[in-house]
Amino acid sequence: MPLLNPNQSYTFSKIFELQIEPEDFVTEFGYTLERIRLNLPQYPGTLDRLEELRSRIEEVLPYVSLASETSRREVLISQVLLDLVHYTKGSIFDYIKLSFIQSLI
To answer: What's the pLDDT score for residue 94?
Structure first.
């Protein structure tokens, strides 16, 4: 049974609202999903918590679904944000307040 109605148009937010597992979503279009570690350019400074962050994320990835925004936020983004606060000594609350205010406009 198809996950998406071919006679309906979908926005990104609508697709995320459907909470379709990524594996099922790509299968809908005849593809397969392979989760691999990317080799991206590296920051030249010292990141004293990077290995711990990477280890925490890689440990849980096989056991969690990232199909919903909430799970991505809680499993991935929150851990990265907390370490960014450590490195920058900046406040994430200013950004959160700004995002909240913009969402009200």
So the answer is: 61
Q: CA–CA distance from 62 to each of 21, 37, 56 (Å)? A: 13, 13, 12
pTM of the predicted model over 0.70: no
The whole-number mean pLDDT for each consecutive block of 10 residues of the chain, a chain of 105 residues, reads 88 85 90 88 83 92 85 84 83 60 54
HEC-encoded secondary structure of the chain: CCCCCCCCCCCHHHHHHCCCCHHHHHHHCCCCCCCCCCCCCCCCCCCCCHHHHHHHHHHHHHHCCCCCHHHHHHHHHHHHHHHHHHHHCCCCHHHHHHHHHHHHC
Q: What is the C-alpha to C-alpha distance for residues 30 and 25, in angstroms, rounded to an integer? A: 9
